[in-house]
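Dear colleague,

Thank you for sharing your sequence with our group. We've completed the structure prediction you requested, and as agreed, I am returning the results in plain text so they can be pasted directly into your records. Please verify that the sequence below matches your submission; if there's any discrepancy, let me know and we will rerun it promptly.
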Amino acid sequence: MADKQRKATAADMLRSLAVIMIPILLLTWLLTNNLDDYPVERVDWRPVADVARAEVDWPLWAPEGLPEEGRDPWVPSRVSWLRTGDATVGGGASPRNHWRLGYLSPDKMYYEINQGDDRLDQFVREVTREGTRVGAEPIEGREWERWESRDGRTQSLVLRDEHTATLVTSDAEFIDLQQFARTLRAS
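Please find the predicted structure tokens below.
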């Protein structure tokens, strides 16, 4: 009895490979196609800051003089105010009054200001991502502590007083973080 099956050729293998690869390449293109860069949604942080200022007896920090319009704007992209006891994102109650303001820099680096008024050591650990103190930095006549996250990615500047801790945090270098911190004004 003669073998009636045809022997596979290189052309058959190429056709089979094409049948497999074309859908894979199509899916890869569809899922990884870089869409146009969508602008970050700008938030109006000033009304939230007004509410926070009215409810606490400590000065609230915010940047002053950053260009928020024009060619290379700093875009305010996140703002929140939590009172002690308010629900947090995780569902628990906030252990402190917590002011948060975030900006996206012209070079697309995110900077965030956090202020809290209770359980300050815990607050600093949370915001610095379990960081460690790596030095100090005088900025605008105040002694700021330098902190770095465990993985070395996130830098923070921490300013403490009797009742509050103010943190400026970013994945930027300390020099850039210092320049941002110099724009902060208390009100």
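Summary note from our side: The longest helix spans residues 10-32.

Kind regards,
the structure core
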